[in-house]
Amino acid sequence: TYGHSQLKTGHPVRSAIHKQLNGRLVLRWVTTWESLLLYVLQPFCSFHLHCLLATMAQYRVKKSSILISEIRDESCVSHFTTRRS
Asked: Domains of the chain: which residue ranges?
């Protein structure tokens, strides 16, 4: 994973050059892995977000239609009670 074949044998193991090369190789590998993981997870997450938003929209439509029907029922009742009195 660290690419030891690319390191030169003349540098000591704990030298700054050795650490920089290892750091770059590891950083490049981690960055590539994270970007591949994002490509895999992005469609999965967007599908679930779409489902969540659609469910919320349906809930709001149901709730608003119930409220509208309650308002209509109350207005009809109040209309009939005012005519009788």
From this structure: 4-84
